[in-house]
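Before relying on records like the one below, remember that each one covers exactly one chain. Contacts with other chains, cofactors or solvent are not represented anywhere in the record.
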Amino acid sequence: MEGSSQIQAIVFDANVFGGNVEPNMTTIENWAEACERHDAELWIPEVVAWELAQRVVHECEQLARQIQTHNGKRRKWGFPQAAEPPLINELQVIRRIGRAGAIIVPLEGEAAVAAIRDQVLLRGAGSRKKDVKTGAADSAWIRSVIEHNNGESDGLILVSGDTRAIIATCQSLDVQVPEIASSLGEIRHLLDETVEATEQQRTSFVSSITHLFSQQGLSASDLTSIADLSRPHNWWSIDLGMSSDDNWEFQDSSLQVERVEFVGPIQYDAWSESTAGQVRIEVEVEEQYARQDRWGDSPEYRNFYYGAWIQGEIALFDGQEPTLESIELAEAEFGTNPESVYSQAI
């Protein structure tokens, strides 16, 4: 893009927020404010907003069921029931997205019909996955954005991990493919206002991020929430040397941050007013397993310990209190140190 002054809008797809598709209102606020400073807008297509809202509602319903199950046990134990939080509906989520500063791009009738046609005829964003035709939602949000931009793609940055659908839909519309950022971190490269951070900016960034990830009580779920790399227990999988015949059952896990390293240069983006750099977080993991002894008389417990790490580009916006909700982590990678595995019976 030839200069950030030509930007009309930055457009978020649902996968901007990771595979769990849960909206982060702080992220929306940060980018909406950045757009406003440059006479641009942050757009979230109506179809994408529906998907984000549905995910929130699903999580709320799951939590409600968990609390109801827990309350059944509390009654059995003779304790008062825990209060159930009020459910959130889809309309509330979409309104909250709008209040955070995003423009909800409406899906008009012509775009909706064309999107269904794409899926049925396997054109544009339409595709077949395991004998099921899909792609209407992708086609619909892309078409709605082009239509909202007066039938053109000029001045748009589409933030999406689904480049294929965007290119195919734009080709079917006979419009130029707009700028595409595969993640939030990649937007800054397209804006072309990124420079090496000053010593003061670097010091502040390093201090804030180090403190954030070194605080006591940080859990694996805290880190998976920003990295979107959830596994059954952690982000990763590792061979602990157990077989199914061992009959060990996973009980719990915990971790402790051992080291926070800053890999490569730390840069400042004047357009979004944010500082970003590659950060590697090394942790020590403890996993607990249990099984009945061979006679079935009493349980046995064993703890496993090993090292793991996660690395990605972390961004912090000016004036933001560094929290797990306010930072952005893009292009995350993760791994383990298999040689570090050891265990002990407890």
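The domain at 4-191 is CATH 3.40.50 (Rossmann fold).
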